[in-house]
Amino acid sequence: MLARLQQVITVSLIAIAAIWAAAWIAAGRPGWAIGGALLILFGYAAFLAIEFVLLAWVGRDDGAPRARARDLVRAWWGEVLCAPRVFCWRQPFRSHAEPDHLPPGASGRRGVLLVHGFVCNRGFWNPWMKRLRAAGVPFVAVDLEPVFGSIDAYPGILDAAAARLRDCTGLAPLVVAHSMGGLAVRGWLRTHGDAAHHVVTLGTPHRGTWLARFGWTRNGRQMRIGSRWLETLRAGETIDGSRYTCFYSHCDNIVFPPSTATLPGADNRHVAATAHVHLAFQDAVFNEVWARTAGSPAGAEGVALAAR
Predict the structure, then answer these.
(1) Cα torsion 119, 123, 127, 131: sign
(2) For the chain, what are the domain ranges?
(3) Which bin fits 297, alpha (ψ -120 to 50), beta or left (φ > 0)?
(4) Average pLDDT for residues 55-80, to the nearest whole number?
(5) Model pTM?
(6) Domain 112-307 bears CATH identifier 3.40.50.1820
(7) Mean pLDDT for the chain?
(8) By the 8 A CB rule, do 284 and 247 touch?
(9) What count of other Cβ atoms lies within 10 Å of the Cβ of residue 7?
(10) What radius of gyration, in Å, describes the C-alpha atoms of the chain?
(11) CB under 8 Å, gap of 24 or more: what pairs does 293-302 form?
(12) pLDDT digits 0-9 by tens, 100-128
């Protein structure tokens, strides 16, 4: 469903930009043609800039490291380049380009369960899946559906995916979850606590996010700071912080204030000058997962090999 929706949005934007440009060129106004087409295609950059302004304002008293103006600009530019590759290419057109990897003879090799976030699908992880496959690491990437439904609808999907990895490897998987996916994982582990070996979350709104006040979908409302759903989740779980590594950033334009992406007692790791989507594609994040799955004595050489 999400792939088709994003296909329609992407193709429509390109078509509207082309029609605008053609109309103004025919009218002898090439400046209007180029300017309008660029605004249609890259207007999202201005929307992202507004998010960063809100982040700087809301997070000014947060306990996370303070973002400087140049950090915010660097993070904004990284997100401007990263977001179209995710939302206009990988997810709408390449969501099944990288199949799950459950090779024979993988017994005893730690597998990885990849869990995307809000308004995403498994295509989000395509670069990860290529690297893990090249390294021989078993993995399964899920699609969380219904896209705009309750987070409570997702644990069954995660349990089935984890079972596939356990059947292949004989081991509980390492879970890597971006954004809302981390909340889905916590909801799953609330009743299946031993189903995951370790959980790595990337920009997960563990304590909600200020921006969710504008969310109108059911899962969007559940991510509001202080929401009943988050309070129920917290009250019904016992978190062993040693089993969580939480990556967060003072330049996360979706999950802020920044410290809302941390968990008490967890290994909370700050990544500077990196925005929400771009956070998932940082070497520091992949290297952590590589160390926990491959365990290669080759160290950095092994990581470089997997990244090619």
Answers:
(1) positive
(2) 112-307
(3) alpha
(4) 95
(5) 0.94
(6) yes
(7) 93
(8) yes
(9) 14
(10) 20
(11) 293/109, 293/110, 293/111, 293/112, 293/132, 293/137, 293/174, 294/135, 294/137, 295/110, 302/135
(12) 999 999 999 999 999 999 999 999 999 99
